């Protein structure tokens, strides 16, 4: 992607990923800046006329009843940022912070936040020049926006706080100076325009959604490899069967398995080897497919949110100012909880397929997929590790959005906890990715044993490609003494997450 041009209306998830992870340059459309200028003029007129408007010349939250003099309106905004930047914990990842900045700029250029274009341009310059504010991961309740993390985002703009630049953590002022970016003084309304919105939770959740959608394809590859390793029954994936219960995800998953195994002589038909397969093989379309539908629903909400104004109050160019609740995280908190559930289920069923591969009582493979079991433990503890990850996921998948704690002297009396939902979803996707990577490795190991039993059997066109990609870097594990299995698992995880594994498989077979 050469560059991304923001309009406030049509930012895509793929563009968010491109900017956040691959440093794609960003520009703002001139038409959008015109809307910004018009909204800003309204705010300046309000301040000059001393018309009472929340957040421009009043305190915040339950302090809205406190009037602020014209002379103090700018100081009010700096005080807001200084007092609200009280996060805790490890810093957010660089891609999450970059996604935050991008989404915030896209929101501000809708022209309803009454912020100066020069302030937006400073934020954009930080994005393009690689200044990454230090933002602790914890501290947002997901209503009144992500006040705490977004305040940390703003601090370096003022020469305050901390930021990473060229891999080094610096004082905010030093980071801006090294990048050649001038710090600013906030004007009336600008602090509130910058820190009031769902931008942090949306950024974390959007990246997790993208990763989960890739994960759903990897899960189908893993499932297809396991199916062939067990000589599973392909009849359960026929379109004829799924067309009479035509959930979109079911149909797409069944098609994926058929495409991946096309040309395979490892798959079987009903009663050739057994009458039925276990659910973890036979019901891949129903389980993976449901997760696909979940992810597509969440994606639809992300598409809306990254192109929304989540500020308060909203300042329209016609002079109308509306104080509402667009900052509230509930519209994304529930979807991100749902995202976590969908990603957890992909891991859950994968772990059960790992168990079926390593358990000699459930297959015709040697115990723990290793020669001379007993002397060697082989894949024994890989299943333990997967079990630990999916069990952790079950805890993390408890919905954060059903919780609320009153804040701000009971003025803000129902909050979303959406940032917690997004953070949990991210961790669940990561855990499930490791489980599915483990299944891919275990299935390839099982396929090698299967080939020893019958060298004439062959994989499908998609699964053969996946197998070859694994074996290009990870050989068959014949005993414990020649391998540190942790390193092997790190290699397979690296391959499926950061390598071209998925793209290479998709080059030979279409995946939904």
From TrEMBL:
Q: Which reaction does it catalyse?
A: L-histidine = trans-urocanate + NH4(+)
Query: Which InterPro entries does the annotation name?
Result: Aromatic_Lyase (IPR001106), Fumarase/histidase_N (IPR024083), HutH (IPR005921), L-Aspartase-like (IPR008948), Phe/His_NH3-lyase_AS (IPR022313)
**Cross-link annotation 5-imidazolinone (Ala-Gly), location:** 143-145
Q: Quote one Gene Ontology molecular function term.
A: histidine ammonia-lyase activity
Q: Which GO terms describe its cellular component?
A: cytoplasm
* Class of this enzyme: lyase
Record PTM text: Contains an active site 4-methylidene-imidazol-5-one (MIO), which is formed autocatalytically by cyclization and dehydration of residues Ala-Ser-Gly.
- Pathway, per Swiss-Prot/TrEMBL? Amino-acid degradation; L-histidine degradation into L-glutamate; N-formimidoyl-L-glutamate from L-histidine: step 1/3
Q: Which Pfam families match?
A: Lyase_aromatic (PF00221)
- Any idea of its EC number? 4.3.1.3
Biological process (GO) annotations held by this record are: L-histidine catabolic process
Q: Which UniProt keywords apply?
A: Cytoplasm, Histidine metabolism, Lyase
Point out residues bearing the modification 2,3-didehydroalanine (Ser).
Answer: 144
What family does the Swiss-Prot or TrEMBL record give for this protein? Answer: Belongs to the PAL/histidase family.
Q: What is this protein called?
A: Histidine ammonia-lyase
